[in-house]
């Protein structure tokens, strides 16, 4: 199966579905990660918190931990990813080459404007594809006015440590949020595992899902 994960920033994909992607790689599936923004990061008052080069290197290291070699980082500006013809066309081209059987992306109700526009652009570009799952938003951008509905569970018991190790490769983010960040990511996977009778799980909301017999 060809599985593609689309994220707004370097670290979003690992956080949302790193366990799933690591599991898919182990099972021999083709996995591609696409990040729409160059992922540099400033605080609201203009202080540089992560350079573009640092973001790319951290993203590359994190993908390697997951076992994903196919990573594209596009050049849209962080905080200003548009929902536009340009974004949709960029994804059209990527889909035409990779031919995904499964597309993973953000929820359109995620409150970060970049996550939101990435989701809408992916949904537009995925008009001819039948399997689209949306990530569970994570705080601070997950506190929306529309609740996330957990619908599709994936057991990540065997890959939770790989996921956590890939998150720790995002050293700038780890430094910014501290150990609480890592604990919360593991804690949520544990809670989603508990409710689905696994040790650890990741969960998605289905936009469309095809069942083949
Ligand atoms: Zn993000």
Structural account:
With 213 residues, the chain is of the alpha/beta class. The chain has a single domain (2-208), classed as 3-Layer(aba) Sandwich (Rossmann fold). It has helices at residues 12-26, 52-66, 85-98, 113-125, 160-168, 171-177, 179-195, and strands at 2-7, 30-37, 41-42, 48-50, 70-76, 102-105, 132-135, 152-155, 201-208. The longest helix has 17 residues, at 179-195. The structure holds zinc ion. Zinc ion binds next to helix 4.
Strand order of the largest sheet: 5-2-1-6-7-9-8
Structure annotation, total helices:
7
| Second rung of CATH, namely the architecture | 3-Layer(aba) Sandwich
| β-sheet strand percentage | 15-25%
Task: Using the coordinates above, name the CATH class.
Answer: Alpha Beta
Indicate the low-confidence ranges by residue numbers.
Answer: none
Query: What structural class do helix, strand and pairing data support?
Result: alpha/beta
Shape: globular
Distance linking N and C termini:
16 Å
CATH superfamily: LmbE-like
Major β-sheet annotation: 7 strands, mixed
CATH topology: Rossmann fold
Which compounds are bound in this model?
Answer: zinc ion
Radius of gyration: 16 Å
> How many domains, as an integer?
1
How do the helices and strands follow one another from N- to C-terminus?
A: EHEEEHEHEHEEHHHE
Helix content: 40-55%
Residue-averaged pLDDT: 95
> Got a strand count?
9
């Amino acid at each position: 199966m060809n599985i593609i994960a689309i994220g707004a920033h370097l670290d979003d994909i690992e956080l949302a579905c790193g366990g799933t992607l690591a599991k898919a790689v182990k099972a021999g599936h083709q996995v591609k990660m696409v990040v729409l923004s160059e992922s540099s990061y400033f605080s609201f008052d203009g202080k540089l918190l992560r350079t573009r080069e640092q973001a790319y290197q951290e993203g590359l290291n994190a993908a390697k931990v997951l076992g994903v070699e196919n990573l594209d980082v596009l050049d849209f500006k962080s905080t200003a990813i548009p929902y536009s013809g340009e974004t949709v066309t960029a994804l059209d081209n990527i889909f035409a080459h990779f031919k995904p059987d499964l597309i993973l992306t953000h929820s359109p109700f995620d409150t970060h404007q970049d996550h939101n526009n990435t989701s809408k652009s992916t949904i537009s570009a995925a008009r001819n594809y039948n399997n689209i799952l949306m990530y569970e938003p994570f705080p601070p951008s997950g506190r929306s006015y529309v609740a996330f509905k957990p619908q599709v569970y994936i057991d990540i018991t065997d890959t939770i440590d790989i996921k956590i190790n890939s998150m720790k490769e995002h050293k700038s983010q780890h430094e910014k949020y501290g150990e609480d960040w890592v604990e919360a990511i593991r804690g949520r996977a544990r809670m989603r595992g508990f409710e689905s009778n696994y040790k650890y799980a990741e969960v998605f909301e289905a936009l469309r899902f095809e069942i083949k017999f």
